[in-house]
Write a structure and sequence with these properties.
The complex is a heterodimer. Helix content of chain A is about 0%, strand content about 50%. Chain A has no helices and eleven strands. In chain A, the strands form two sheets. In chain A, strands 2, 4, 5, 6, 9, 10 and 11 form a seven-stranded mixed β-sheet that branches. A four-stranded antiparallel β-sheet of chain A has the order 1-3-8-7, with no helix packed on it. Chain B is about 0% helix and about 45% strand. Chain B is mainly beta. Chain B is globular and about 40 Å long. Classes of the chains: A mainly beta, B mainly beta. The interface between A and B is medium-sized, with 30 and 24 residues.
């Protein structure tokens, strides 16, 4: 069964450093998403991406964040200058189409900012 | 904010059916009810979704009331591996592409 994959599974970085989280969505999917979950809190939407453009973004997704689909398979989330409060699980998801289409999630990347 | 209300926790005996309720009294006509679960800190796992008819798949059944204001997820024979947080999410065009997660229900399956 096709699945969303994410690398790395864990990332430790120093405050102020740049990190890139990588995702490989399900191959025939067209919509891609990033969510995050701070330890003990709810899963929060960050951004959705379609046709090489951001479709929607939350208030969390400020200028420190960017997304990119650098090739036909990868989807990346970049945090330019990490803060302590960026420590969280980051989940990538993909769907065949937009609303009313099921989003499938990857296993997540645990980011720890020291 | 999430448009659903779920009990914070439930217990279920192994091998018995787990019935997880969800209230979504403000759901509108074109919005679907989705159920996901999250085991530990793993990625949310899709379970099932429906619009107004009852649905069943290999994992669970979804019963939606006729007025669509509430639904119940049924795991017919719960196992210890079904211990997880279960999220009921209403999703539709007005939410764009995003899923809005609430706190969910912690289901503990006990032997």
């Amino acid at each position: 069964e096709p699945e969303v994959t994410q690398t790395p599974s864990h990332q430790v970085t120093q405050m102020g450093q740049e990190v890139i989280l990588r995702c490989v969505p399900i191959s025939n999917h067209l919509y891609f998403y990033w969510y995050r979950q701070i330890l003990g809190q709810k899963v929060e939407f960050l951004v959705s991406f379609y046709n090489n453009e951001i479709s929607e973004k939350s208030e969390i997704f400020d200028d420190q964040f960017s997304v990119e689909r650098p090739d036909g398979s990868n989807f990346t989330l970049k945090i330019r200058s990490t803060k302590l409060e960026d420590s969280a699980m980051y989940f990538c998801a993909s769907s065949e189409a937009s609303y009313q289409e099921t989003q499938y999630f990857g296993p997540g990347t645990r980011l720890l900012v020291l | 904010d999430a448009k659903t209300t779920q009990p914070p926790s439930m217990d279920c005996a192994e091998g018995r059916a787990a019935n997880l309720p969800c209230n979504h009294s403000t759901i509108s006509g074109n919005e679907y009810v989705y159920w996901y679960r999250q085991i530990h800190s793993q990625g949310p796992q899709y379970i099932i979704h429906g619009l107004k008819n009852n649905e069943t798949n290999e994992m669970a059944s979804l019963i939606i009331t006729e007025d669509r204001k509430s639904s119940t997820l049924i795991l017919p024979h719960a196992t210890l591996r079904d211990t997880a947080v279960y999220y009921c999410i209403v999703s539709g065009f007005q939410y764009g592409n995003k899923l809005v997660f609430g706190a969910g229900t912690i289901l503990r399956v006990k032997s």
